[in-house]
Design goal:
12 helices, five-stranded parallel β-sheet, alpha/beta, six-stranded mixed β-sheet, homodimer, 320 residues, 2 domains, Diaminopimelate Epimerase, Chain A, domain 1, inorganic pyrophosphatase (n-terminal core)
């Protein structure tokens, strides 16, 4: 499908570039890599995301030009919809974006991007950024340091620093190429992993005090209540990554983080090691996700919610 | 120097393989990669380390065959001394090991390995493992899955999961090659990063309660006392990595962890971001290390020790 995509790029002059709501490193890095490439070709390009860019990605070259309202822009010949399995994932402007003449979908999710006929979808790629790299190479576009920094960030964040099973041989080959083109892996890693708000670390200390284990240590959990957030002056986003600390413990196969969204309403993050399938567990409770990372919402007292979640875990994992 | 090393390997039959005391992932992975390669060539090879293999590296293929006493072994034609800038770093058997006829030194430290005339030293390599990979390729030795797993572990651990500045273009190229030869990056990362003792995580929660900041948040510190260890049933090794959590905080340029070795005697770990040089700070207090990671020991009450360390930081970093 590369040829169809390249044909659209060559024949159009004005592009919108967008991705899913709550953009992550792969969404932002992929968008900005294409943005720099198109501008390098002398094309007009605008990056639109419904949601603001998280502070941690403020170092990405071009991120300062991302817009968050489509009120004053129009007349696009084509739109790139990136890292979206469904065009609705772009947010409130989905209908307007869906009405643009040419829609190019680039995605690495299994059920990705089929809302468009012009698509590059490869579930074997680590990230949308890795597919963007392939596209730019096919087009013979020079990878500048700005492009390299953006694609490297996409890959780094979506592979959890080359630790997840989506990391492939090509992922490392692309990383080598990007370093050669000016991506500074230390600078990028410092920006991604060493800019945590101090409030988050203080809250983490408190959350660790709530650690509990079940099933002989194979299930571990922590919780964060609204009261804990208030006491530390923390925001819901500061709980990000807490569940991964529980997963990092020896013997833990399933990690659970209970986050109290509001009184007696909990958001539950589930993580697993190896082949233990937390998607099935989340599914039993009305949620979803991937084999090793899923989420759901459950109402009730913390005690009742814990009981429901543990029940679902035991029902799915009869061998635990 | 590859030819001299290959000549020794080809002409000898019985090899000792060793590395520095308190072996890390690079030392163990490099040793075991050479062990498997030599045995694949039909040679006799023994891996000796003075210290036990840390539990976290128990998954490395061949680690079960490492010996920790040289009482019942002798008659070596040659010895590989790996990841050592000085042969004394192998421990109490340094004299005996130094008396073996042929000594092959492989190292990536700046002042590495010059105790031998048969040496492969490349400070631009990420790790000793990366140089071992180069050697095996030069020799035309097939990289088996066991060899690939060991070298990948060496590289992964010495680059902090491809995040440190020693990560080079070749590092990623080698990682790609090793994956192609059977290194399972997810399995290895799970073994390295997701097997933390629960006691360590509980202690971490307590240590985070001691966080303090100076110089407008550019210096952050935590401490662990003997009393805290006792209360959690933790060991000194469980404090590993705590200083990195402080470094991961936004705005922190220098992270300090004070660990009370015994009453009024502290081991101090220093970490920095970017070009801030903690080696100079440690040097002022009688310690040493690298630009971004150093350590020293200071005696006195915790208050007096903190004062000395902050004094050294202010003396070295006048711009802080």
């Amino acid at each position: 499908m590369f040829n169809e995509v390249i044909e659209v790029i060559n024949s159009c002059a004005t592009f919108l570039i967008t991705a899913h709501v709550r953009p992550d490193g792969d969404a932002l890095g992929s968008e900005l890599a294409i943005y720099h490439a198109l501008r390098g070709m002398g094309k007009n390009a605008v990056v639109y995301n419904q949601d603001q860019t998280p502070d941690v990605y403020g170092f990405l070259p071009g991120s300062e030009n991302i817009i968050h309202s489509m009120d004053s822009v129009n007349g696009f010949d084509a739109v790139f919809v990136l890292d979206c399995s469904d065009i609705k994932r772009v947010g409130n402007e989905a209908d307007r974006i869906g009405s643009i003449d040419k829609i190019i979908s680039i995605d690495h999710h299994v059920s990705g991007g089929t809302f468009s006929e012009i698509l590059l979808v490869d579930p074997s790629a680590s990230s949308t950024g890795e597919i963007v790299h392939r596209l730019l190479n096919r087009m013979g576009i020079a990878i500048t340091a700005d492009i390299a920094t953006n694609i490297y960030t996409a890959i780094l964040t979506d592979t959890g620093s080359f630790r997840y099973s989506n990391t492939g041989i090509d992922t490392f080959r692309v990383a080598a190429d990007l370093m050669g083109k000016g991506a500074d892996c230390r600078y990028i890693a410092e920006n991604i992993y060493e800019t945590r708000p101090v409030i988050q670390i203080r809250l983490m200390g408190k959350a660790l005090d709530t650690m509990e284990f079940y099933e002989g240590g194979r299930v571990g959990s922590i919780y964060v209540t609204q009261e804990m957030l208030r006491r530390e002056g923390a925001l819901p986003e500061h709980t990000e990554g807490f569940v991964d600390i529980v997963r990092s413990i020896q013997g833990v196969e399933i990690a659970v983080c209970y986050y109290e969204v509001s009184r007696n309403r909990f958001k539950i993050s589930l993580r697993s090691k190896g082949t233990v399938d937390v998607e099935k567990i989340a599914g039993k409770l009305g949620g979803g996700g991937h084999v090793n990372a899923s989420a759901c919402r459950v109402e009730g007292s913390i005690k009742a919610v814990k009981g429901k979640v543990l029940g679902a875990i035991r029902a799915v994992c009869s061998t635990l």
